[in-house]
Each structure stands twice: as structure tokens, then as C-alpha cells.
Amino acid sequence: MKPVPQFLAPRQSVIYAHTRRMLDHTAVNANSFAMSVAERYVATVAPDVRVVPFRLGEGDELFAAMKSNGQILRRYMDGTVKVLPADLEDAWVLALPEPFRSECERDLAQRRQRVTYQLPENATGRDFSTIAHVLSESGQLCSAWGEALADGEITEAEYARLVGESDDVMSSVLEFKAHLAERRGQGK
User: Is the whole model's pTM more than 0.85, yes or no?
Assistant: First the structure.
């Protein structure tokens, strides 16, 4: 039996919904937000691959740039322009203020059964590697669990694999706890 298709709303619809909610619940207006998007876009996308004609300006040109950039964003949101370019998507989501940005990123990640995790700004390589190890081992356990449940029965081989994977998760958590205690002792 084939699974019933479950169609998802387009990614851009998710982004637009969070943007509308942000505009409705904050003092940010559409033109100011459009300038934030434009600044991020110009800062993160190489000039030779930009497809959106955002303008930046100072002084008298700033008002015209705000108006132009606001019109560009409104055309995407009202459907005049049908497809949101991938490079603009990144700048757009990054320009959303918290908590709207985190909620948008979470909803986008959930479309692919993923989770998001914000990395701390002052973290070291070891900080990243210990938590990454926990997440990696947890992912392997989840994968094994899903495979074991696929047919509704857990065989001896599946049981042994699950026990091994859960031991690996516990080991990685203990490694993380040791690193945490070390960091705490250093006053970081």
C-alpha cells in the first residue's frame, strides 16, 4: 500500500507567515525590515550572483532605497513574484528578529524532520565536538529505533543494536558532562 501524499506548504509561505506575524506583533514596519533584509543580502551574497536588485543608501538616498526594498519584499509576499530565491531566503530569515527567526527556522527544519540548534558565540572547538557527538549518537539511536519499529517487531539483532546504540548515547552524554564540569571549573 502506497503512503498517502502529504503536501507541505511552500517554504516561502512559511517564511511569509512568520514575517507577517512579526510585522503584526512588533513595532517594525515593512520598509525597515526590507532594509534589514537588503543589508544582509548584500553582505552575504556575492555581487556576481545576486538576482534581487536591492538598494542601499545614505542620506537622501536612504528613503528611496527603503521604499524600493519595501516594494520588492511586498511583491514576494503578495504573490506578484512567485518564487523566493534561495539566496534571498537565507538573508530574509536571518533578518527576522527573535523569537520570530528561531520559530521560522524551527518550522523550516521540521519540514525535513530536523531540529535547529543555535551555536554559542564564545564556544570552543571542543564545546562543539562534545555536543555534536551527543547529537550524532542520538541520531544513530533514533535511526536504529525507526528501523526496528518498521515491521512492528524487535528481533534479537535489532535489540542488540538498540542496546549498543543507547550505550553509545550514554557514553557521549558522560563525555559531555565531563567537558561541562571542566568548563565550569575554568569559569567559562
Answer: no
Architecture of domain 125-186: Orthogonal Bundle (1.10)
What 3-state class would DSSP assign to 153? coil
Secondary structure element (H or E) that encloses residue 165, with its range = helix 156-186
Write out the chain's pLDDT in tens, 188 residues: 677 777 888 999 999 999 999 999 999 999 999 999 999 999 999 999 999 999 998 888 999 999 999 999 999 999 999 999 999 999 999 999 999 998 999 899 888 887 776 666 677 788 888 888 899 999 999 999 999 998 889 999 999 889 889 988 998 899 889 888 888 877 55
* b/e sequence 176-188, b meaning 16+ C-beta within 10 Å: beebeeeeeeeee
**Grid cell 545576486 in the structure block, residue:** 50
In 1-99, alpha helices (H): 11-25, 30-44, 60-77, 86-95
Domain ranges of the chain: 11-110, 125-186
CB neighbours (10 Å) of residue 40? Answer: 18
User: How many whole angstroms separate alpha carbon 95 and alpha carbon 91?
Assistant: 6
